[in-house]
Inverse folding.
């Protein structure tokens, strides 16, 4: 059964037409119908992507538990990685689809969240105090699930919900129903996770939530939202985290485009677009980007540990992706993968699950995050008869801008009022880029920033469980170094490098019994004893400070995702912090066992932002962060210092032969 009308008619008559997916992609005037057979596989690398004529090959339903492929923690709920091997691909006009999709209400019983508002608020409080407050990360997403039982045929209910989403939701990246025979997914996801087309890798971090009633957008309230420090910093933090991923899968790292306003029926979000060239297998790209920080947190590895500690149940498909894999006209691999959010899962017996999460940052309040979960779930809950509808927008209203700089087709009707092109809104969005690092915002010419004397020199970055190191590698490479990265758990000789960077990571630097802290302290001790040029960043800086005899202090208010102007060895620099701990000092110069050390301190409380001594330096902030407008200049200055010291002490490459 491959004709769209026949398939939908069969469902309406109560028949099971076999596995299929109906998908409307952003801006399209039609739906795509994919049919075929369903199988399961254990690994992303085993998702089928056979050769052949151009077109889609496989639609994969990737559950959250696949994060274990990266060695990250999760509650294993056994949700399978299902793959629809596509044998049929048809198009059906949007108006025609609306005419044949079931036009009837969805009826449910027993609806309720698996955690009450008070219970969820208590979890928010614990995460803010015990995780962000203790240096475990900058932001975390904790989910809860609305549960109910669908009355009547589940597939008919899902298609009726799809019809309502097509009519009443707007701004979705994908609006879809997927039926595998073992489950049905129906939703309107606003967010592209990752796509690959013609070698261009794109990601689309979305964060910040402006709630409205759907009847009329309040322009003044929206402008206040766009200037709210919590909302601004929340988007910056997920931008940084997805830049880490792009730095891994794109040859020269990602370029930032935007920000934009994404308007939906019940809320609006702010978003960026990231783009970069890459040549990896699309399944490898998918693996290296599991999963978006907008649904997990940062840094990623520790965010997964925090989620496993605080969530009651597995996530199943929430925060995973749908991944459509195929080939283009030249036989090259393609992929389009929206995040599985704003999505309901329905079992063959009618069990309904609608998971939703809120992003917790240092500015969060328990009440605000509870309200955010209700707002985010509102669209799909309304489609399932579990909440009020936004006003009908008509089938053309979900057509949005393409985020490449030009506007898409104008909506036919838009009762909420589009403010994305309002001059003050556009100005408020553009102003968000003013304090950011141009290194990530501008197109980069290879070697344009290279420093004299760095050609042929090698640097090693030791990763302390924070892939900010991937971004740092691109910046050091742009300055002219050849860079390797290594996990802290993979000890190996370091004497073949001109520079060793002991990098960032989560955790308490004062916990000397923790394996990571012990290993990184031992590495630093060896580097200092050998006089090998060393740069320490964030956690590395804290551990270096401890070895130099400086006391460490846990801040009452964490510096997570915080941008500040600080003095770094006489120059004012705009830099970004992701830290809870800091070293303290009451003088600008101290004598240590490794020689005299110069400090750049905060005049208010003595916090040590940077230090440098004979052959070593450290910075508490992240020069590689998009928040560090002057980060590249800081790195260039420190490299000049370290390499000059190396020449004086005989640690240059020529001297080592």
């Amino acid at each position: 059964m491959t004709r769209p009308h026949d398939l939908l008619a069969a469902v309406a008559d109560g028949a099971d037409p076999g596995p299929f997916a109906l998908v409307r992609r952003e801006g399209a005037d039609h739906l795509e119908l994919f049919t075929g057979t369903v199988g399961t596989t254990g690994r992303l690398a085993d998702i089928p992507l056979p050769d052949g004529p151009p077109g889609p090959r496989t639609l994969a339903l990737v559950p959250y538990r696949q994060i274990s492929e990266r060695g990250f923690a999760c509650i294993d709920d056994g949700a399978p990685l299902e793959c629809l091997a596509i044998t049929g691909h048809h198009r059906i006009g949007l108006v025609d689809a609306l005419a044949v999709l079931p036009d009837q209400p969805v009826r449910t019983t027993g609806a309720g969240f698996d955690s009450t508002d008070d219970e969820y608020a208590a979890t928010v409080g614990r995460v803010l105090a015990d995780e962000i407050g203790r240096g475990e990360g900058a932001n975390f997403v904790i989910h809860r699930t609305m549960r109910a039982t669908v009355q009547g045929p589940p597939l008919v209910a899902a298609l009726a919900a799809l019809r309502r989403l097509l009519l009443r939701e707007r701004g979705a990246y994908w609006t879809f129903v997927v039926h595998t025979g073992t489950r049905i997914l129906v939703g309107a996801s606003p967010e592209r996770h990752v796509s690959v087309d013609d070698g261009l890798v794109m990601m689309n971090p979305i964060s910040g939530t402006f709630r409205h009633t759907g009847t009329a957008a309040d322009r003044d309230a929206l402008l206040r939202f766009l200037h709210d420090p919590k909302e601004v910093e929340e988007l910056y933090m997920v931008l940084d985290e997805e830049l880490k991923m792009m730095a891994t899968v794109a040859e020269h790292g990602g370029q930032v485009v935007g920000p934009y306003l994404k308007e939906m029926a019940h809320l609006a979000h702010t978003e960026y677009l990231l783009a970069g060239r890459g040549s990896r297998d699309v399944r490898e790209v998918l693996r290296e980007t599991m999963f978006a920080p907008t649904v997990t947190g940062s840094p990623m590895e520790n965010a997964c540990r925090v989620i496993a500690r605080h969530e009651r149940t597995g996530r199943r498909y929430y925060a995973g992706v749908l991944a459509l894999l195929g080939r283009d006209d030249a036989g090259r691999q393609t992929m389009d993968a929206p995040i599985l959010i704003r999505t309901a899962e329905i079992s063959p017996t009618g069990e309904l699950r609608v998971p939703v999460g809120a992003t917790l940052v240092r500015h969060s309040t328990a009440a605000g995050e509870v309200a955010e979960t209700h707002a985010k779930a509102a669209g799909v809950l309304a489609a399932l008869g579990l909440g009020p509808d936004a006003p009908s927008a008509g089938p053309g209203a979900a057509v949005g801008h393409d985020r490449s700089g030009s506007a898409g087709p104008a909506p036919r009707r838009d009762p909420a009022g589009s403010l994305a092109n309002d001059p003050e809104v556009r100005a408020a969005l553009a102003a968000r880029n003013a304090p950011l690092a141009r290194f990530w915002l501008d197109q980069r010419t290879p070697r344009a920033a290279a420093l004299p004397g760095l050609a042929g020199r090698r640097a090693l970055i030791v990763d302390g469980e924070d892939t900010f190191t991937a971004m740092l590698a691109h910046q050091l490479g742009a300055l002219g170094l050849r860079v390797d990265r290594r996990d802290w758990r993979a000890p190996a000789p370091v004497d073949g490098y001109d520079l060793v960077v002991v990098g960032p990571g989560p955790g308490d630097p004062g916990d000397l019994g923790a394996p990571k802290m012990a290993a990184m302290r031992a590495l630093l001790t060896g580097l200092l004893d050998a006089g090998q040029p060393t740069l320490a960043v964030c956690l590395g800086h804290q551990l270096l400070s401890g070895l130099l005899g400086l006391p460490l202090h846990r801040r009452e208010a964490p510096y997570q995702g915080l941008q500040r102007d600080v003095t770094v060895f006489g120059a004012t620099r705009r830099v970004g912090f992701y830290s809870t701990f800091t070293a303290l000092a009451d003088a600008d110069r101290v004598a240590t066992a490794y020689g005299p050390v110069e400090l750049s301190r905060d005049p208010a409380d003595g916090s040590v932002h940077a230090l440098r001594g004979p052959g070593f330096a450290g910075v508490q902030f992240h020069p590689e962060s998009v928040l560090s407008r002057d980060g590249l200049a800081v790195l260039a200055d420190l490299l000049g210092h370290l390499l000059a010291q190396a020449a004086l002490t005989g640690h240059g490459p020529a001297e080592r032969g």
Summary: The mean pLDDT is 90.
